[in-house]
Amino acid sequence: MSAEYKFCGLGFADYPEYRPASGTETLYRVFGGATSRITGEFYTFEKPRSLTAAELNLNVAKWGNLCLYVATFHVTEGTPMYIGRIDQRFHTYADGGHEIFLGGNPNAKQVWIEYHKAMLGLRLVGEPERLLQDAFIVAPRRLPDA
């Protein structure tokens, strides 16, 4: 599998930039629901304050993420990160359905860290916070093909 295919399958709009963490970064992770955990592979530099902000910027509901909480992490120096724009057009479900939100933020960026490296390189800061629930998220019955 080519690197381009792998990163496209991860929801990047184009090939991401590789950058080892300097140790000063703060990352945020939106999570909630049966298929979403406090830790994982996908993070963002900007802290969303509401469900709508999380979905419009991160395009995550299609993965079964109900966007209930946001967790804050500090990144250990040297942790490998891949940073790039989120493909807001990446919205077709496995069952042929489509994303209900239109016009996501084309400049929103995500940070991808391999799961085992995230477990070693991230430190949870405080308790996760509940996101303002200003909209409804309907989780898909099947996850999209990646």
Describe the protein's architecture and organization.
With 146 residues, this protein is of the alpha+beta class. It has one domain. It has 3 helices and 7 strands. The protein has helices spanning 3-9, 51-58, 115-121, and strands at residues 17-20, 26-31, 42-43, 69-75, 80-85, 109-112, 122-130. The strands form 2 sheets. The chain has a 4-stranded antiparallel beta sheet, with no helix packed on it. The longest helix is centred in the middle third of the chain and has 8 residues, at 51-58. Residues 1-5 have low confidence and may be disordered.
Could you give a quick summary of the protein structure above?
By secondary structure, this protein is an alpha+beta fold. Helices cover 15% and strands 26% of the residues.
Tag the structure with descriptive keywords:
26% strand; 3 helices; 146 residues; 7 strands; globular; alpha+beta; three-stranded antiparallel sheet
Helix count from the secondary structure assignment: 3
Overall average residue pLDDT: 82
> What class would the helix/strand composition place it in?
alpha+beta
The arrangement of helices and strands along the chain is: HEEEHEEEHE
